[in-house]
Amino acid sequence: MPEVEQAQGDTEPLHTTPKLTEKPVVSKAGELREPKSRGGAGYLAESLPAAERRQIGKVARLPRVMELTGLGRSSIYNRMDSRSAQFDPSFPRSFPLGAQNGGAVGWDEEQVKAWVAKYAAND
């Protein structure tokens, strides 16, 4: 149990260390999802180590990713699925945009552009 510091006369603790009872869940596609019993994007951001948290630039939704890559919807998701023959571990991972599992997702547009540039340079 974390120790609590109290000033004399105060009834509330000045400092407590939060206790995380659940960890974020990583789906088979490699995207981070929140446990079902917890909600809100704040929990996910607070629970990640500082090294894993980073600033996301412009968020690209699926039609924009399709436009940038020239790939169709199923090809994009196949690149992220480790069970697929088209799996590409270097393909940018999507991330949830809301608190609900199975809701809207987005991609970091800069990562998508970097992935396209990497493959354009290989040709």
From TrEMBL:
InterPro entries, per database record: AlpA (IPR010260), Prophage_regulatory_activator (IPR052931)
Region of interest (Disordered), ranges: 1-45
Entry-linked Pfam families: Phage_AlpA
Domain of life: Bacteria
Xref: PANTHER family: DNA-BINDING TRANSCRIPTIONAL ACTIVATOR ALPA
Protein's name according to its UniProt entry: AlpA family phage regulatory protein
